[in-house]
Design a protein that fits this description.
Helix content: 25-40%
Oligomer: single chain
Mean pLDDT: 87
Shape: globular
Largest sheet: 7 strands, mixed
Structural class: alpha/beta
Number of helices: 12
Strand content: 15-25%
Radius of gyration: 24 Å
Distance between the termini: 67 Å
Length: 396
Amino acid sequence: MEKLAIVTLNERGLQTAGRIKRGIEDALIYGLASGCQEADVLYEDFSQLVRELFSQGVGIIGICTTDILIRAVTPLLHDNWQESPVIAVGEDGGVIVPLLGKMETVKGIARQIGEVLRGMAAKPTSGETWLGRGRGNVDEVEGNRGKVTLVGIGPGSTALLTPQALQALLSATDWVGYNRYLDLVEYLRKPETVCHASDNRQELERAKMALQLAEKGKRVALISGGDVGIYGMAATLFEVIEKNPGKWEGVDIEIASGISAMQVAAALTGAPLGHDFCVISLSNLLKPWDIIAQRIELAARGDFVIVFYNPVSKQRRWQLDKAKEILLKWRLPHTPVILGHNLTREGEKIEIIKLIDLNGQAADMNTTIIVGSSQTRIVRRGGKQWVYTPRQYPGV
Protein backbone atom coordinates (compact mmCIF):
# COMPACT_ATOMS: atom_id res chain seq x y z
CA MET A 1 0.00 0.00 0.00
CA GLU A 2 1.29 3.46 -0.90
CA LYS A 3 2.17 5.80 1.94
CA LEU A 4 -0.55 8.45 1.71
CA ALA A 5 -1.16 11.95 3.03
CA ILE A 6 -4.54 13.67 3.02
CA VAL A 7 -3.98 17.41 2.79
CA THR A 8 -6.77 19.88 3.53
CA LEU A 9 -7.11 23.64 3.83
CA ASN A 10 -10.13 24.13 6.09
CA GLU A 11 -12.66 22.55 8.43
CA ARG A 12 -15.04 21.56 5.64
CA GLY A 13 -12.28 19.70 3.87
CA LEU A 14 -11.20 18.22 7.20
CA GLN A 15 -14.55 16.48 7.52
CA THR A 16 -14.10 14.85 4.11
CA ALA A 17 -10.51 13.95 5.02
CA GLY A 18 -11.81 12.17 8.11
CA ARG A 19 -14.27 10.16 6.03
CA ILE A 20 -11.49 9.11 3.66
CA LYS A 21 -9.20 8.13 6.53
CA ARG A 22 -11.83 5.80 7.94
CA GLY A 23 -11.37 3.71 4.80
CA ILE A 24 -7.61 4.32 4.38
CA GLU A 25 -6.44 3.99 7.96
CA ASP A 26 -2.70 4.40 7.37
CA ALA A 27 -3.10 7.86 5.81
CA LEU A 28 -2.17 10.94 7.84
CA ILE A 29 -4.33 14.06 7.70
CA TYR A 30 -2.45 17.33 7.25
CA GLY A 31 -4.48 20.44 8.11
CA LEU A 32 -3.59 24.07 7.36
CA ALA A 33 -2.96 25.65 10.75
CA SER A 34 -4.85 28.85 9.87
CA GLY A 35 -7.90 26.92 8.63
CA CYS A 36 -8.14 23.81 10.79
CA GLN A 37 -8.43 23.48 14.55
CA GLU A 38 -6.91 20.00 14.65
CA ALA A 39 -5.44 17.32 12.39
CA ASP A 40 -2.80 14.59 12.62
CA VAL A 41 -0.28 17.20 11.48
CA LEU A 42 -0.75 20.98 11.24
CA TYR A 43 1.22 22.85 8.58
CA GLU A 44 1.79 26.48 7.56
CA ASP A 45 2.46 26.50 3.81
CA PHE A 46 0.41 24.35 1.39
CA SER A 47 2.80 24.39 -1.60
CA GLN A 48 5.86 23.73 0.54
CA LEU A 49 4.18 20.78 2.27
CA VAL A 50 2.94 19.24 -0.97
CA ARG A 51 6.39 19.50 -2.56
CA GLU A 52 8.06 17.95 0.47
CA LEU A 53 5.62 15.03 0.52
CA PHE A 54 5.87 14.54 -3.25
CA SER A 55 9.69 14.57 -3.12
CA GLN A 56 9.60 11.94 -0.36
CA GLY A 57 7.46 9.62 -2.48
CA VAL A 58 4.33 10.11 -0.40
CA GLY A 59 1.03 9.86 -2.27
CA ILE A 60 -1.09 12.99 -1.92
CA ILE A 61 -4.86 13.23 -1.63
CA GLY A 62 -5.55 16.96 -1.81
CA ILE A 63 -8.93 18.15 -0.52
CA CYS A 64 -8.76 21.19 -2.75
CA THR A 65 -9.11 22.39 -6.34
CA THR A 66 -7.02 20.68 -9.00
CA ASP A 67 -5.26 23.87 -10.10
CA ILE A 68 -3.55 24.68 -6.78
CA LEU A 69 -2.49 21.04 -6.37
CA ILE A 70 -1.04 20.90 -9.88
CA ARG A 71 0.66 24.27 -9.40
CA ALA A 72 2.37 22.97 -6.28
CA VAL A 73 3.83 19.80 -7.83
CA THR A 74 4.54 20.95 -11.40
CA PRO A 75 8.11 22.21 -10.70
CA LEU A 76 9.01 18.71 -9.44
CA LEU A 77 7.66 16.68 -12.34
CA HIS A 78 10.02 14.38 -14.21
CA ASP A 79 8.33 11.19 -15.38
CA ASN A 80 5.03 11.69 -13.65
CA TRP A 81 3.67 8.22 -14.41
CA GLN A 82 6.44 6.82 -12.23
CA GLU A 83 6.08 9.51 -9.55
CA SER A 84 3.96 9.61 -6.40
CA PRO A 85 0.19 9.45 -6.94
CA VAL A 86 -1.60 12.79 -6.70
CA ILE A 87 -5.40 12.98 -6.46
CA ALA A 88 -7.67 15.99 -6.00
CA VAL A 89 -10.92 15.61 -4.06
CA GLY A 90 -13.65 18.22 -3.76
CA GLU A 91 -14.26 19.63 -0.29
CA ASP A 92 -17.62 17.86 -0.07
CA GLY A 93 -16.20 14.62 -1.49
CA GLY A 94 -18.34 14.94 -4.60
CA VAL A 95 -15.52 15.02 -7.16
CA ILE A 96 -12.41 12.83 -7.30
CA VAL A 97 -9.79 13.61 -9.96
CA PRO A 98 -6.71 11.36 -10.39
CA LEU A 99 -3.96 13.69 -11.61
CA LEU A 100 -0.51 12.16 -11.51
CA GLY A 101 1.30 8.91 -10.89
CA LYS A 102 1.34 5.40 -12.29
CA MET A 103 -2.13 5.00 -13.75
CA GLU A 104 -2.89 1.63 -12.16
CA THR A 105 -1.91 2.96 -8.75
CA VAL A 106 -3.60 6.35 -8.93
CA LYS A 107 -6.80 4.90 -10.38
CA GLY A 108 -6.85 2.26 -7.69
CA ILE A 109 -6.54 4.84 -4.92
CA ALA A 110 -9.17 7.06 -6.53
CA ARG A 111 -11.52 4.08 -6.81
CA GLN A 112 -10.93 3.26 -3.14
CA ILE A 113 -11.71 6.86 -2.16
CA GLY A 114 -14.88 6.70 -4.25
CA GLU A 115 -15.99 3.53 -2.44
CA VAL A 116 -15.23 5.09 0.95
CA LEU A 117 -17.28 8.16 0.06
CA ARG A 118 -20.30 5.91 -0.58
CA GLY A 119 -19.71 4.81 -4.12
CA MET A 120 -19.27 6.32 -7.55
CA ALA A 121 -22.07 7.76 -9.66
CA ALA A 122 -20.39 6.74 -12.89
CA LYS A 123 -17.91 4.16 -14.07
CA PRO A 124 -14.53 5.92 -14.32
CA THR A 125 -12.36 5.89 -17.40
CA SER A 126 -8.73 6.96 -17.75
CA GLY A 127 -8.29 10.54 -16.68
CA GLU A 128 -12.00 10.67 -15.77
CA THR A 129 -13.54 12.54 -12.87
CA TRP A 130 -15.08 10.38 -10.15
CA LEU A 131 -18.40 11.82 -9.02
CA GLY A 132 -19.76 10.99 -5.57
CA ARG A 133 -23.47 10.66 -4.85
CA GLY A 134 -25.40 13.73 -3.94
CA ARG A 135 -24.08 15.77 -6.89
CA GLY A 136 -27.13 15.47 -9.12
CA ASN A 137 -27.38 13.60 -12.36
CA VAL A 138 -23.90 12.65 -13.61
CA ASP A 139 -24.93 13.34 -17.20
CA GLU A 140 -25.49 16.97 -16.27
CA VAL A 141 -21.94 17.26 -15.02
CA GLU A 142 -19.97 15.01 -17.35
CA GLY A 143 -22.52 13.56 -19.73
CA ASN A 144 -21.63 12.10 -23.09
CA ARG A 145 -20.80 15.45 -24.67
CA GLY A 146 -17.44 15.56 -26.28
CA LYS A 147 -15.05 18.41 -25.66
CA VAL A 148 -12.17 20.12 -27.43
CA THR A 149 -9.74 21.93 -25.18
CA LEU A 150 -7.33 24.15 -27.08
CA VAL A 151 -4.10 23.76 -25.12
CA GLY A 152 -1.14 26.13 -25.24
CA ILE A 153 1.82 24.14 -23.88
CA GLY A 154 4.16 27.12 -23.59
CA PRO A 155 7.69 27.05 -25.00
CA GLY A 156 8.43 23.51 -23.84
CA SER A 157 9.45 23.51 -20.17
CA THR A 158 7.26 21.79 -17.57
CA ALA A 159 7.86 24.73 -15.23
CA LEU A 160 6.09 27.02 -17.72
CA LEU A 161 3.14 24.72 -18.41
CA THR A 162 0.09 26.30 -16.78
CA PRO A 163 -1.96 24.20 -14.34
CA GLN A 164 -5.00 24.55 -16.60
CA ALA A 165 -3.04 23.27 -19.61
CA LEU A 166 -1.54 20.41 -17.62
CA GLN A 167 -4.95 19.34 -16.36
CA ALA A 168 -6.33 19.42 -19.91
CA LEU A 169 -3.50 17.18 -21.14
CA LEU A 170 -3.92 14.71 -18.30
CA SER A 171 -7.69 14.42 -18.62
CA ALA A 172 -7.83 14.08 -22.42
CA THR A 173 -8.63 10.81 -24.16
CA ASP A 174 -6.98 12.06 -27.37
CA TRP A 175 -4.19 14.49 -28.26
CA VAL A 176 -4.20 16.18 -31.66
CA GLY A 177 -1.33 18.37 -32.82
CA TYR A 178 1.77 19.10 -34.86
CA ASN A 179 4.23 16.28 -34.21
CA ARG A 180 6.99 18.56 -32.88
CA TYR A 181 4.70 20.03 -30.21
CA LEU A 182 3.39 16.61 -29.25
CA ASP A 183 6.98 15.44 -28.76
CA LEU A 184 7.55 18.24 -26.24
CA VAL A 185 4.85 16.89 -23.91
CA GLU A 186 5.12 13.19 -24.73
CA TYR A 187 6.49 12.51 -21.23
CA LEU A 188 3.08 13.57 -19.86
CA ARG A 189 1.03 11.29 -22.09
CA LYS A 190 -0.70 8.36 -20.44
CA PRO A 191 -0.31 5.01 -22.25
CA GLU A 192 -4.02 4.92 -23.09
CA THR A 193 -4.18 8.47 -24.44
CA VAL A 194 -4.38 8.29 -28.23
CA CYS A 195 -1.97 10.59 -30.04
CA HIS A 196 -2.86 12.01 -33.49
CA ALA A 197 0.26 13.69 -34.93
CA SER A 198 0.44 15.53 -38.24
CA ASP A 199 2.62 17.85 -40.30
CA ASN A 200 2.92 21.56 -39.59
CA ARG A 201 0.83 22.62 -42.60
CA GLN A 202 -2.20 20.43 -41.83
CA GLU A 203 -3.85 22.89 -39.44
CA LEU A 204 -7.36 22.74 -40.92
CA GLU A 205 -7.26 18.95 -40.97
CA ARG A 206 -6.17 18.89 -37.31
CA ALA A 207 -9.01 21.16 -36.26
CA LYS A 208 -11.58 19.05 -38.13
CA MET A 209 -10.17 15.86 -36.62
CA ALA A 210 -10.42 17.30 -33.10
CA LEU A 211 -14.06 18.27 -33.63
CA GLN A 212 -14.91 14.91 -35.19
CA LEU A 213 -13.35 13.02 -32.28
CA ALA A 214 -15.18 15.20 -29.78
CA GLU A 215 -18.42 14.60 -31.68
CA LYS A 216 -17.97 10.92 -30.77
CA GLY A 217 -17.76 11.83 -27.08
CA LYS A 218 -13.96 12.09 -26.78
CA ARG A 219 -12.16 14.64 -24.62
CA VAL A 220 -9.66 16.11 -27.06
CA ALA A 221 -6.62 18.26 -26.35
CA LEU A 222 -5.84 20.26 -29.51
CA ILE A 223 -2.26 21.29 -28.84
CA SER A 224 -0.20 24.31 -29.86
CA GLY A 225 3.18 25.59 -28.72
CA GLY A 226 3.27 28.82 -26.72
CA ASP A 227 -0.20 30.31 -26.34
CA VAL A 228 -2.85 28.59 -28.44
CA GLY A 229 -4.44 31.93 -29.32
CA ILE A 230 -1.21 33.54 -30.62
CA TYR A 231 -0.48 32.10 -34.07
CA GLY A 232 -1.96 28.87 -32.70
CA MET A 233 -4.77 26.43 -33.34
CA ALA A 234 -7.55 28.47 -31.71
CA ALA A 235 -8.06 30.68 -34.76
CA THR A 236 -7.99 27.65 -37.06
CA LEU A 237 -10.63 25.83 -35.03
CA PHE A 238 -13.02 28.78 -35.14
CA GLU A 239 -12.38 29.17 -38.86
CA VAL A 240 -13.46 25.56 -39.38
CA ILE A 241 -16.55 26.11 -37.21
CA GLU A 242 -17.51 29.26 -39.14
CA LYS A 243 -17.22 27.42 -42.46
CA ASN A 244 -19.48 24.62 -41.20
CA PRO A 245 -22.47 26.39 -39.63
CA GLY A 246 -24.68 24.21 -37.45
CA LYS A 247 -22.14 21.42 -37.28
CA TRP A 248 -20.55 20.17 -34.03
CA GLU A 249 -23.12 22.03 -31.90
CA GLY A 250 -22.90 19.25 -29.32
CA VAL A 251 -19.17 19.75 -28.77
CA ASP A 252 -17.95 21.84 -25.84
CA ILE A 253 -14.97 24.13 -26.39
CA GLU A 254 -12.50 25.41 -23.82
CA ILE A 255 -9.26 27.36 -24.21
CA ALA A 256 -6.29 26.72 -21.91
CA SER A 257 -3.89 29.62 -22.34
CA GLY A 258 -0.15 29.11 -22.50
CA ILE A 259 2.96 31.21 -22.02
CA SER A 260 4.23 32.70 -25.24
CA ALA A 261 7.87 32.64 -26.35
CA MET A 262 7.96 36.45 -26.37
CA GLN A 263 7.14 36.48 -22.65
CA VAL A 264 9.99 34.06 -21.95
CA ALA A 265 12.47 36.01 -24.08
CA ALA A 266 11.46 39.19 -22.27
CA ALA A 267 11.73 37.58 -18.83
CA LEU A 268 15.21 36.23 -19.55
CA THR A 269 16.50 39.63 -20.61
CA GLY A 270 14.67 42.14 -18.40
CA ALA A 271 11.64 44.12 -19.48
CA PRO A 272 11.84 44.90 -23.20
CA LEU A 273 8.03 44.72 -23.44
CA GLY A 274 7.55 47.26 -20.66
CA HIS A 275 5.80 49.70 -22.99
CA ASP A 276 3.60 49.40 -26.10
CA PHE A 277 4.59 46.57 -28.43
CA CYS A 278 3.23 44.59 -31.38
CA VAL A 279 3.80 41.09 -32.73
CA ILE A 280 4.35 40.32 -36.43
CA SER A 281 4.94 36.97 -38.12
CA LEU A 282 7.44 37.13 -40.96
CA SER A 283 6.02 34.02 -42.60
CA ASN A 284 4.38 34.79 -45.92
CA LEU A 285 2.76 31.36 -46.28
CA LEU A 286 -0.66 32.66 -45.22
CA LYS A 287 -0.39 36.36 -46.08
CA PRO A 288 1.48 38.30 -48.79
CA TRP A 289 4.83 39.91 -48.09
CA ASP A 290 3.45 43.34 -49.06
CA ILE A 291 1.12 43.22 -46.05
CA ILE A 292 3.95 42.12 -43.75
CA ALA A 293 6.24 44.91 -45.00
CA GLN A 294 3.47 47.48 -44.54
CA ARG A 295 2.89 46.37 -40.97
CA ILE A 296 6.61 46.48 -40.13
CA GLU A 297 6.87 50.02 -41.48
CA LEU A 298 3.78 51.27 -39.65
CA ALA A 299 4.93 49.65 -36.40
CA ALA A 300 8.39 51.16 -36.79
CA ARG A 301 6.94 54.60 -37.53
CA GLY A 302 4.69 54.27 -34.48
CA ASP A 303 7.76 53.53 -32.32
CA PHE A 304 6.45 50.19 -31.07
CA VAL A 305 8.74 47.54 -29.69
CA ILE A 306 8.34 44.81 -32.31
CA VAL A 307 8.32 41.06 -31.75
CA PHE A 308 9.02 38.88 -34.80
CA TYR A 309 7.74 35.31 -34.92
CA ASN A 310 8.67 32.81 -37.67
CA PRO A 311 11.60 34.98 -38.79
CA VAL A 312 13.17 32.50 -41.24
CA SER A 313 12.90 28.89 -42.36
CA LYS A 314 14.85 26.58 -44.66
CA GLN A 315 12.84 27.92 -47.61
CA ARG A 316 12.60 31.54 -46.39
CA ARG A 317 15.92 33.26 -45.70
CA TRP A 318 15.37 36.77 -47.07
CA GLN A 319 12.45 38.18 -45.07
CA LEU A 320 14.44 39.06 -41.96
CA ASP A 321 16.98 41.04 -43.99
CA LYS A 322 14.14 42.90 -45.70
CA ALA A 323 12.56 43.62 -42.32
CA LYS A 324 15.88 45.04 -41.11
CA GLU A 325 16.04 47.37 -44.13
CA ILE A 326 12.61 48.75 -43.28
CA LEU A 327 13.42 49.13 -39.58
CA LEU A 328 16.62 51.07 -40.25
CA LYS A 329 14.56 53.81 -41.90
CA TRP A 330 13.00 54.51 -38.48
CA ARG A 331 15.38 53.01 -35.91
CA LEU A 332 18.97 53.87 -35.02
CA PRO A 333 21.60 51.24 -35.91
CA HIS A 334 22.43 50.64 -32.22
CA THR A 335 18.80 49.80 -31.27
CA PRO A 336 18.86 46.73 -28.97
CA VAL A 337 17.66 43.47 -30.49
CA ILE A 338 17.04 40.26 -28.54
CA LEU A 339 17.36 36.84 -30.15
CA GLY A 340 15.85 33.97 -28.17
CA HIS A 341 16.71 30.52 -29.52
CA ASN A 342 15.02 27.27 -28.36
CA LEU A 343 13.67 28.97 -25.27
CA THR A 344 13.44 26.67 -22.18
CA ARG A 345 14.54 23.71 -24.33
CA GLU A 346 17.82 22.00 -25.05
CA GLY A 347 20.13 24.40 -26.88
CA GLU A 348 18.56 27.51 -25.36
CA LYS A 349 20.51 30.63 -26.23
CA ILE A 350 19.83 34.31 -25.63
CA GLU A 351 21.68 37.02 -27.55
CA ILE A 352 21.49 40.81 -27.29
CA ILE A 353 22.80 42.51 -30.41
CA LYS A 354 22.46 45.80 -32.28
CA LEU A 355 19.93 46.21 -35.08
CA ILE A 356 22.71 46.86 -37.58
CA ASP A 357 24.12 43.38 -36.82
CA LEU A 358 20.83 41.54 -37.38
CA ASN A 359 20.77 39.23 -40.41
CA GLY A 360 18.99 36.19 -41.80
CA GLN A 361 21.75 33.83 -40.66
CA ALA A 362 21.23 34.77 -37.00
CA ALA A 363 17.83 33.08 -36.65
CA ASP A 364 15.70 30.07 -37.52
CA MET A 365 12.06 29.03 -36.99
CA ASN A 366 12.80 28.40 -33.30
CA THR A 367 14.00 31.97 -32.76
CA THR A 368 11.92 34.77 -31.27
CA ILE A 369 13.18 38.28 -32.02
CA ILE A 370 12.42 41.44 -30.05
CA VAL A 371 13.42 44.77 -31.61
CA GLY A 372 13.52 47.70 -29.21
CA SER A 373 11.81 51.07 -29.70
CA SER A 374 13.59 54.43 -29.63
CA GLN A 375 13.29 54.32 -25.82
CA THR A 376 14.58 50.78 -25.18
CA ARG A 377 17.68 50.77 -23.00
CA ILE A 378 20.47 48.40 -21.95
CA VAL A 379 21.49 48.28 -18.29
CA ARG A 380 24.70 46.52 -17.27
CA ARG A 381 24.64 44.96 -13.83
CA GLY A 382 27.02 42.43 -12.33
CA GLY A 383 28.57 41.63 -15.69
CA LYS A 384 25.20 40.96 -17.31
CA GLN A 385 23.21 43.04 -19.78
CA TRP A 386 19.54 43.71 -19.09
CA VAL A 387 17.17 45.27 -21.61
CA TYR A 388 14.15 47.35 -20.67
CA THR A 389 11.73 49.78 -22.26
CA PRO A 390 10.69 52.58 -19.85
CA ARG A 391 6.98 52.99 -19.21
CA GLN A 392 7.24 56.76 -19.56
CA TYR A 393 8.48 58.86 -22.47
CA PRO A 394 10.85 61.76 -21.74
CA GLY A 395 9.14 65.05 -20.92
CA VAL A 396 5.80 63.47 -19.92
